[in-house]
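Morning!

This is the sequence you dropped in the shared folder:
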Amino acid sequence: MNAATAPAETLRLLPQITEARIERLLTARAERSLQAPDYEGILGPAVRYAKPADHSVARLEIAVALADGFASEAEAIIVTLPKDSEPYRILAFRQSPRASAYAGGFSETR
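The structure's back. Tokens below.
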């Protein structure tokens, strides 16, 4: 995520971020050009996820519709970090409230 251009809605997805830090960043960006140390001071631990040169971020929209009528949608924000202990990290996951369950409930065929 590019902290120099990301809107507040995107910044809220960062782990370990607070509304106060987001407001400080938005105000500082509007007032002056920020350098790397500025971002570190403002974002605190969340800066690890906001360095555009060091990682990739993807937003996935997933829609599933099965033949038996079940349907659901979800959105995930995923980041990859070099030299991290995990191959990727999920920053946010949201399942649509419009998910529909099986019309007749679950049934087992034996």
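Headline: The longest helix spans residues 19-31.

More detail when I'm at my desk.
O.
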